[in-house]
Amino acid sequence: MVLAELSLAIAAIKGVGELINSAGSIADIASKLDDALILTEKAKKNAPAKPIGKTQKNIQQKLDKYDNTDGESTNLGAIVQQYSDEKKMQNELYLLGCSLNRKFGEGTWDKILDIRAKRLAKQKQLEQDHRDKLKELQEERKKFWLEILKVLGLLLMFTAFSYWLMQNY
Q: Looking at the chain, which terminus has fewer C-beta neighbours within 10 angstroms, N or C?
């Protein structure tokens, strides 16, 4: 999985690099650049594939009885391939940045990455604010229903007490 994601990221970065030469402005390559950065971030996360079902999990445990790497391969060839692909991806990103700086002026690549990082941070903050508001709303609803239950309980007890008074006195 990780190797495939790295390969996709490298291919996307190379594709953007080829578009830079024919582009008139950065706007012409913006969507491809965004795709390349998203694929790069996915490849950097290195989320190993985990077994899906119970049977698959049992089989995986029996096959990798002494392997505690959570589904990552311990094969030396796979490790070397992954490491070299990560280095290649970093090199391709560097070359892409150099191409953008050469074509559109010094500091373009750094400014693009800086603006993107700020926007991602802003998006994460908005998502966190939304989650906080939802949690607050859930708590308010919970308090409301607890108050309703208290009132209904009091009414029920008052009704039962009144009924008992009428029956006994």
A: C
In the chain, the N- to C-terminal Cα span, in Å, equals 80
From 2, 25, 9, select the one nearest 93 (Cα to Cα): 9
Kindly report, residue by residue over 119-139, the tens digit of the pLDDT. Answer: 999 999 999 999 999 999 999
Both tokens assigned to 139: 């708590």
Give the C-alpha separation, 146 to 140, whole Å.
10
Residue 68 in tokens = 């505690």
* pTM metric for this prediction: 0.57
Q: Which two tokens stand for residue 165?
A: 């008074």
Q: Is the dihedral of CA 63, 67, 70, 72 positive or negative?
A: negative
Compute, in degrees rounded to 10, the torsion defined by CA atoms 133, 138, 140, 145: 170
Number of H helices and E strands in the chain, helices first, is 5, 0
Distance CA 153, CA 166 (A): 20
